[in-house]
């Protein structure tokens, strides 16, 4: 089994970390335990040139680094010049591969409405990336943003992808339910995949669930039964890699992975955020600090009880509106999924300090260095083994795996909160308050 994160970005994308380089993505893939990582942003000229300079084809439609980075800690980890943290003795070594990808923001009018859809494009070689980039440059400035905004409909974007020489380019709707920029979102989306992609909708074989939905939520709508549910991080900083991810039991190759996704044979499922943690889970109005369940919001005709303005309708209400099943029905051959909480968030709760604090990052480095990578710790290492290392961490991991969590839903761009303990746990005694 191997793990793939198929939605990332570069430092050329707006609102993304300046440390998102090829080297840093590689280092954090090792730290997380990710074998295949998307390149992101291949439509950006400077990033595409950097990818061409630093990656070489592996003969399987994926890419390796020409020269792997040395042992200096990746950005976001504590410096230790006497003993660099990122060394083969501390982190399980994986043969990390890159998959060429990009995210495109389509903003256009259709059916009397303004549509704002984000879609992911995947290609197996640089010639395809260059060909697609040249075609897309007719519809917007590709150098302005690693995630370019184009005056091109999702349907016509898909047509370009399908026309790519070689026939091996694929399009997957990104974070399909997000209100503002998605295929099915409440603000700029459609009421069906078919309405969005029209005569080409049969070429859509997968969608990305996004942080605010999980496969079970999507299984409430029979129209999506034919689609495979993918989940990836949409990381805007390298530390966020793998907050959602995909699991494969296949050959590590571009063609084999997409065959597995299309036919659900060798695709094992996903690691998922608890959807309440996503920042568009429930409805709400951020300016007024108002968060509403779908039921509460609908009772108010989707208006803020404080200011009277329309609320941002979140993913849960949107699914409730379109679903034709009261309960999820897992489609035939559809793989299951497991919830995860990023290790830094678990350690932040245990230590009672910020997720980016030096204390948490030091604990993160020590913990991952003891277990090989983050995903092994979160899902594979027996709880008993973790208990010998840290009883409190072991109990936190046990609760996460069992779904015994306290959920506070996100809304209108505000992340939700998933807690494992009531009150503050005691590091000294292991007491759980």
Determine Rg (CA atoms, Å): 21 Å
Largest sheet: 9 strands, mixed
CATH class value of the domain at 2-276: Alpha Beta
Given as residue ranges, the uncertain stretches (5+ residues, pLDDT < 50) are 80-84
Strand content: 15-25%
Structural class: alpha/beta
Number of strands: 17
Query: What's the CATH topology name of the domain at 2-276?
Result: TIM Barrel
User: Approximately how much helix is present in the residues?
Assistant: 25-40%
Going by CATH, the architecture of the domain at 2-276 would be: Alpha-Beta Barrel
Number of helices: 14
Instruction: Please give the alpha-carbon distance between the first and last residues.
Output: 37 Å
Which geometry do the CA atoms define? globular
CATH homology superfamily name of the domain at 2-276: Metal-dependent hydrolases
Mean pLDDT: 93
Structure description:
The protein has helices spanning 22-32, 45-54, 126-136, 154-162, 193-197, 215-218, 254-263, 294-299, 315-322, 343-351, 358-371, 374-380, 383-389, 391-402; strands at residues 2-5, 36-38, 55-57, 63-65, 97-110, 113-123, 149-150, 170-173, 206-208, 228-230, 245-248, 267-272, 283-285, 290-292, 337-339, 406-408, 417-419. The protein has 433 residues and is of the alpha/beta class. Strands 1, 2, 5, 6, 7, 8, 11, 12 and 15 form a nine-stranded mixed β-sheet that branches. It has a two-stranded antiparallel ribbon with strand order 3-4. The longest helix has 14 residues, at 358-371. It is globular, with a radius of gyration of 21 Å.
């Amino acid at each position: 089994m191997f793990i793939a994160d198929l939605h990332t970005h570069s430092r050329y994308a707006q609102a993304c970390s300046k440390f998102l380089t090829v080297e840093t993505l590689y280092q954090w893939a090792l730290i997380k335990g990710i074998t295949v990582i998307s390149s992101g942003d291949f439509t950006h000229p400077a990033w595409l040139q950097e990818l061409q300079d630093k990656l070489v084809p592996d003969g399987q439609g994926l890419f390796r680094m020409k020269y792997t980075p040395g042992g200096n800690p990746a950005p976001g980890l504590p410096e230790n010049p006497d003993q660099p943290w990122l060394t083969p003795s501390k982190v399980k070594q994986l043969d990390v591969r890159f998959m060429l990808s990009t995210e495109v923001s389509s903003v256009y009018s259709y059916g009397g409405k303004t549509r704002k859809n984000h879609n992911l494009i995947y290609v197996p070689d640089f010639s395809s990336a260059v060909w697609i980039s040249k075609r897309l440059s007719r519809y917007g400035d590709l150098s302005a943003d690693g995630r370019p905004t184009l005056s091109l409909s999702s349907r016509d974007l898909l047509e370009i992808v399908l026309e790519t020489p070689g026939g091996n380019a694929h399009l997957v709707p990104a974070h399909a339910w997000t209100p503002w920029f998605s295929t099915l979102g409440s603000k700029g989306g459609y009421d069906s995949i078919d309405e969005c992609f029209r005569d080409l909708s049969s070429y859509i074989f997968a969608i990305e669930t996004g942080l605010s939905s999980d496969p079970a939520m999507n299984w409430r709508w029979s129209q999506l039964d034919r689609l495979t549910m993918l989940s990836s991080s949409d990381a805007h900083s390298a530390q966020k890699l793998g907050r959602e991810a995909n699991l494969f039991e296949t050959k590590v190759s571009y063609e084999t992975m997409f065959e597995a996704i299309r036919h659900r044979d060798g695709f094992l499922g996903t690691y998922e955020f608890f959807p309440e943690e996503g920042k568009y889970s429930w409805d709400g109005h951020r300016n007024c600090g108002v968060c509403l369940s779908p039921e509460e919001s609908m009772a108010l005709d989707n208006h803020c009880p404080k200011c009277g303005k329309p609320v941002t309708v979140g993913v849960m209400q949107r699914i409730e509106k379109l679903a034709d099943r009261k309960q999820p029905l897992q489609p035939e051959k559809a793989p299951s999924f497991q919830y995860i909480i990023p290790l830094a968030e678990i350690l932040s709760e245990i230590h009672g300090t910020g997720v980016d604090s030096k204390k948490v990052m030091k604990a993160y480095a020590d913990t991952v260095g003891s277990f090989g990578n983050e995903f092994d710790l979160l899902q594979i290492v027996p709880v008993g083994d973790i208990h010998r290392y840290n009883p409190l961490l072991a109990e936190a991991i046990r609760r996460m795996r069992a779904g015994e969590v306290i959920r506070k839903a996100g809304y209108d761009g505000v992340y939700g909160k998933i807690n494992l303990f009531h009150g503050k746990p005691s590091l000294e005694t292991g007491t759980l308050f």
